[in-house]
Each structure stands twice: as structure tokens, then as C-alpha cells.
Design brief:
By secondary structure, the protein is mainly α. The chain has two domains: 134 residues, Glutaredoxin, CATH 3.40.30.10; 146 residues, Up-down Bundle (Glutathione S-transferase Yfyf (Class Pi), Chain A, domain 2), CATH 1.20.1050.10. It is built from nine helices and four strands, in the order E-H-E-H-E-E-H-H-H-H-H-H-H.
């Protein structure tokens, strides 16, 4: 007999906490691939402008020039216990242009009527079959990087070039547990010990990134790769949300000279800053997490320096989006710092 999906499929973070009070993110369920030459117009993304994981896919889509090939719908920023809505209740959000559903969970159940898991974004949908292909952001950005070359405006842009894959993977392996997921582990911790470990780990990660960026324009070398996309979506949200809402308050991104300049550099890259909506970010986190913010009051600040301020990082690398995948680039990469002993194992990247 098929199990019935529970009513509560949206704000489920508090049931993903173990007996020690540590947040343990559930793994993504839909992990399908695409043909080597995917069709333009067949695939669709459901995203949240607030969500750093979904933001990755918007950036990859824009950098590759796939706006005409892959359509997008944007959920409302408020996440309730039944998941994300598609009701165009807030500026920047859309209705479901594929099926006309009002909730993202309905799209999940079209793929699996018995689905009883978390309703998350991003979602990559096959419009022809009406089924979800993948809901794991790290895999979706690689699909966008390689499977739509015939339709990409910038097919020569390779976000995961073969000669840098080992280095990119090594960076992802500490950026995810310490920074990307680390802010959530700090914010959703239900014990002091769990919070202390996670929050300290966040700043171990940020300190490590700061050191690397002293000699490298981007985190894996002189040009943009997927490692930058994965890191910067957290940095964009850090001072506005994670510093206060998730209690990651030892330092801010603007307190790190290299990280802050790097964040501005990426923001000013066409296709990246255009996809950031801090109003959605603030409204989502502060209003959706009632357990962390019972009155759902959204703060006015912080007033941060402009993302458009000069970054002065061009001397560290040309940063051009159209680069060769020649192995000669590997001779210019900066040395990798030793990983911290508590870097942990990637559970969802």
C-alpha cells in the first residue's frame, strides 16, 4: 500500500535535527540525468529567489546563456508547512506556467503520487513527460553546463573544466559543510554544543576562503567556475540574514577584505547580480522560520556597502567568461590551504 504524504512538507527543518541537537539535512530524492543533447524548450526550472541552492541554477542558466532554452517559474518567498506556493503573491514571483498548480508539492506528486518527503527548490522538470528530472542543485548546474551546448549563447564557457575538476571538487568538499550548509547547521541547531561547533566551522571556512582569495581572483583560480557559483550564493545572503537570523555573528562578509571584494566582483558579473533579490531573501527567512522568529518581524537593515562599489580584483586574473580549457591554466593556480580537521562529509551539495 502506498504511504500517504503528510500535510507538513514545507518547513520541516526542525524534524531534521538529531538527538544531539544537530541539523542533518535530508538528501535530495530526484537525481535523474539528461541526454547529452537536451532539447530547447522541453525543460523547466522551479526556483525561489530567496534560496541559495536555487540561486545557483539561475546563475548557471544566465552565465551559459540558456534563458531562451530553459523556462523558469519563481515561487512566493513565504514557505509554510505545506511548502512553496506559486500564486504570484509577491513582486518577482510567478504562477505555475506549466500546469497551473498553486503549490510546488502538486508538481512533486505528479512525479510520485506517494511522495512524502520535503518539497524543495530548485526543481528541474521535463515538460514533455510532466515529471521531475532532478532536485539537487549541484547536479542541475552541471547538467546546465554540459547538456544544452547547442542552445547556449556561451557554449565555450565551461564551469567545470576537466583540468580543474580535482581542484573544484576539493574546494566544494569544504565549502559545502563549513559554509553553505554550515550556516543552516548553526541556525537550526537545538543545542549549544551543536550550535558552537557549526558556527565556529562557518568562520573556519570563511577564513580559509579569505586566505585563498588573497592571491586568486576566484576561488579555484583566475576565472569563474562552479565553485564560485556555489560559494557566492551564501556570501550574498550572509550579512543580511545568516549573521543575525542564524547567529553566525563573529564576523560579517564585509569584515573580510578579500571575500567582500570577491563578492562584489561576482555580483558585477553579468548574469549574477541580476539574479539576486535581497527582498525575497529577507522576507523568506525572517517570515518563514517562526520557531526562530516567532513574531515574523523583518528587520529594516542592515545597511551594507554597495555591491556595485569597485572591487579592484582584475589584477589577480582576467576573469573572462570565454576561456580555453587548456591545461596551461593549472600552472597559475594558487596553493590550497590544508583542510580543517573537522571539515566533515558532504551530505548534500
Amino acid at each position: 500500500m502506498k504511504s500517504q504524504a503528510p500535510q507538513r512538507t514545507g518547513n520541516t527543518w526542525d524534524v531534521e535535527v538529531d538527538t544531539a541537537g544537530c541539523f542533518q539535512r535530508s538528501a535530495s530524492v530526484f537525481r535523474g540525468a539528461l541526454p547529452n543533447q537536451a532539447e530547447a524548450g522541453r525543460y523547466h526550472l522551479y526556483v525561489s529567489l530567496a534560496c541559495p541552492w536555487a540561486h545557483r541554477t539561475l546563475i548557471a542558466r544566465a552565465l551559459k546563456g540558456l534563458e531562451a532554452a530553459i523556462t523558469v517559474d519563481v515561487v512566493d518567498h513565504f514557505l509554510d508547512d505545506r511548502g512553496w506556493t506559486l500564486q504570484a503573491q509577491t513582486p518577482g514571483a510567478t504562477r505555475d506556467t506549466v500546469f497551473g498548480h498553486e503549490r510546488l508539492r502538486d508538481i512533486y506528486r505528479l512525479t510520485d503520487p506517494s511522495y512524502a518527503g520535503r518539497i524543495t527548490v530548485p526543481v528541474l522538470l521535463d515538460k514533455q513527460t510532466g515529471r521531475i528530472v532532478n532536485n539537487e542543485s549541484s547536479e542541475i548546474i552541471r547538467l546546465l553546463n554540459t547538456r544544452f551546448q547547442a542552445h547556449a549563447l556561451r557554449p565555450s564557457l565551461d564551469l567545470y573544466p576537466e583540468h580543474l575538476r580535482q581542484r573544484i571538487d576539493a574546494i566544494n568538499d569544504w565549502v559545502y559543510p563549513l559554509i553553505n550548509n554550515g550556516v543552516y547547521k548553526a541556525g537550526f541547531a537545538k543545542s549549544q554544543a551543536a550550535y558552537d561547533q557549526a558556527a565556529r566551522g562557518v568562520f573556519v571556512g570563511l577564513d580559509r576562503a579569505e586566505a585563498l582569495l588573497a592571491t586568486s581572483r576566484f576561488i579555484a583560480g583566475p576565472r569563474i567556475t562552479e565553485a564560485d557559483i556555489r560559494l557566492v550564493t551564501t556570501l550574498f545572503r550572509f550579512d543580511v540574514v545568516y549573521h543575525t537570523h542564524f547567529k553566525c555573528n563573529l564576523r560579517r562578509v564585509i569584515d573580510y577584505p578579500n571575500l567582500w571584494a570577491y563578492t562584489r566582483d561576482l555580483y558585477q558579473t553579468p548574469g549574477i547580480g541580476d539574479s539576486l533579490d535581497l527582498e525575497h531573501v529577507k522576507q523568506h527567512y525572517f517570515a518563514s522560520h517562526e520557531a526562530l522568529n516567532p513574531c515574523r518581524i523583518v528587520p529594516l537593515g542592515p545597511e551594507t556597502p554597495s555591491f556595485d562599489a569597485p572591487h579592484d580584483r582584475a589584477a589577480l586574473g582576467d576573469g573572462h567568461l570565454f576561456w580555453s580549457t587548456s591545461s596551461s591554466e593549472t600552472t597559475r593556480r594558487p596553493p590550497e590551504a590544508a583542510p580543517p580537521s573537522h571539515a566533515g562529509t558532504v551530505q548534500r551539495s
